[in-house]
C-alpha cells in the first residue's frame, strides 16, 4: 500500500450511519463453487514472494525481476495467456526498466467476452533499509504479497473452472510504492485501446483477519454498489463499512484509483488491514511468519462466488452510485 503520510495521530471516527447503495438489480443466488483453494498453495506462493531472496521487491531491482519471472511462470503454468505481446507491460513513467505482469483469460461467451474484469494487486514493495540493523529487508508479506497471492489463486481457479463468460485481466502492478506508477502507466494505455472495462477488484493487504462482523471492506464504499453486490453474490456479510477507510481516503491511495480516473467505472480495493490488526506496515517485520494462512485461504475461497458472478452475470450489475 502506498505510504500513508497522515497515519499519526489515529483519530477515532464515529461509525458512519445511513449507508446507502444502489438497489439490487437481480434476484441472484450465490454461485455454487466446488473448487477448493488449497492452503498449501497459498502458503508456498506467499512464502517465496515474501522471501529474503527477493530483497524486498523494490521496483527496478534484481529482486523484483525475480518476482516478475516467478509470476510469469505461474501464469504460464496455469494456461493464462499474456495480454500484450509478452506478460510484461513496460512502465512509461519510471527511469529504469520496470514491468507490470499481465495475463488474460478470454471469456467463454461470444458477446460477454468483449467486456473485461480486472483482478489486480501490486507485487512491488520498498526494498532494503539503508541503515545497518539486524534485519534490513522489507519483505512486504502483507503489503502486498498477500494480495498478489489472492489474485494468483483466483487465476488458477478460473483457468481450471473456465467459468468466466467475461474476459478477465490478471494484473500484478509494479511501482505502486513509488506513487501508483504501474497503474498510472497502464490505465491510460488501455483506455486508448478502447478497452471495455466492466469493473476492477484490486486486492490490498489481506494477510491477517479483522475482529469484526464482516470479512473485508472496500475502499470508496459509497461510490458504487460493489459492497452490496459482493454480499449478494457470496450470500454472506463479506464486505462491511470501515470508518477509517473513509477517514484516510484509501480509495485514492492504491492502484484502483488510476483505473477509476481513466474509465469512470467501479474500481475499488478490497482489504482486511484495519489499522488495528497489523503493527508492521512498511516495517521489516512484515514477513511470512506473521501472516495468517488459514485466514487468507478462507478469504480467497469466500470471494470465489463473488468473482464468478462478476464474470458471468448477463448484465453489468455493479454500477457507480449517483
Protein described:
This protein is an alpha/beta fold. The protein contains eight helices and nine strands. Strands 1, 2, 3, 4, 5, 6, 7, 8 and 9 form a nine-stranded mixed β-sheet that branches. The longest helix has 21 residues, at 141-161. The chain is globular and about 55 Å long. Mean pLDDT is 93; it is low at 5-26.
Strands, helices and their partners?
Elements: H1 39-49, H2 62-77, E1 81-82, E2 88-90, E3 99-105, E4 116-122, H3 141-161, E5 167-173, H4 181-192, E6 197-203, E7 216-218, H5 226-234, E8 239-240, H6 243-247, H7 256-263, E9 267-271, H8 293-310
Parallel strand pairs: 4-5, 4-6, 6-9, 7-8
Antiparallel strand pairs: 1-3, 2-3, 3-5, 7-9
Helix pairs in contact: 1-3, 3-8, 4-7, 5-8
| SSE arrangement, N to C | HHEEEEHEHEEHEHHEH
How helix-rich are the residues, as a percent range? 25-40%
The averaged pLDDT comes out at 93
Number of strands: 9
Distance N to C terminus: 28 Å
State the major sheet. Answer: 9 strands, mixed
Radius of gyration from the CA trace? 18 Å
Question: Treating each run of at least 4 consecutive H or I residues as one helix, how many helices?
Answer: 8
Label the overall shape: globular
Strand content: 5-15%
Secondary-structure-based class equals: alpha/beta
In terms of per-residue confidence, which ranges show pLDDT below 50 for 5 or more consecutive residues? Answer: 5-26
